[in-house]
Amino acid sequence: MKKLFLLLFVLALPLLASAQMRFGVCSYSTLLKSMPEYLMAQRSIDDLRHKYESEMKRSEQEFNAKYEEFLDEQRDLVPAILRKRQTEIQEMMEKNVAFKQEAQRLLKQAETDALAPVKLKLNEAMAKVGAQHGYAFILNTDGDACPYINPEMGEDATEAIKAQLNP
């Protein structure tokens, strides 16, 4: 989808150039990472990630201890107790895997939720700069999406956006 949009944009660029349209360019990720709100959001996400990792490590240690105990005792267990212990270990392993998957999902959701207001603030600043400078649009140069930008038509809007973010 992005490639199609970029192709259409490149094909329409000569038409846009004849209309003397101006545009801005910036690195969205660089601007985002320069915001103090981003750093605070990342810190809270890292704290949450650490809590989940600690719990996963504790669960893994508990599982390993139980499994080692089982291995030591399995020769002496009667078949019914052996099956019961095997089932307990299997359930414990499945719960640990499920918790790990749920933790990853929750971390991703927490990151999305924490960054939403930061991205909104950045988008609003970009819109204000675009309107103030008379840009038709502001291109995101992340990921080498625009290897060449004609400096007569487009200009780097990064500093203007930073100024708008930190008045």
Describe it for me?
- This protein has 167 residues and is mainly α.
- The chain is built from five helices and three strands.
- The chain has one domain: Skp domain (Protein Binding, DinI Protein, Chain A, 2-Layer Sandwich).
- It is rod-shaped, with a radius of gyration of 27 Å.
- The chain starts with a helix and ends with a helix.
- The model has no long low-confidence stretch (mean pLDDT 88).
**Largest sheet: number of strands, sense, barrel closure:** 3 strands, parallel
Which class in CATH terms?
A: Alpha Beta
Number of helices: 5
CATH architecture assignment name? 2-Layer Sandwich
What is the CATH homologous superfamily assignment? Skp domain
Structural class: mainly alpha
CATH topology: Protein Binding, DinI Protein, Chain A
Overall spatial form:
rod-shaped
The run of helices and strands is HEHHHEEH
How many distinct folded domains? Answer: 1
Question: Which tags fit this structure?
Answer:
167 residues; mainly alpha; Protein Binding, DinI Protein, Chain A; three-stranded parallel sheet; 5 helices; 3 strands; 6% strand; rod-shaped
Question: How would you concisely characterize the structure shown here?
Answer:
This protein is mainly α and 167 residues long.
Structural topology:
Layout: H1 2-18, E1 23-26, H2 28-34, H3 36-73, H4 79-133, E2 138-140, E3 154-156, H5 158-165
Parallel strand pairs: 1-2, 1-3
Helix pairs in contact: 3-4, 4-5
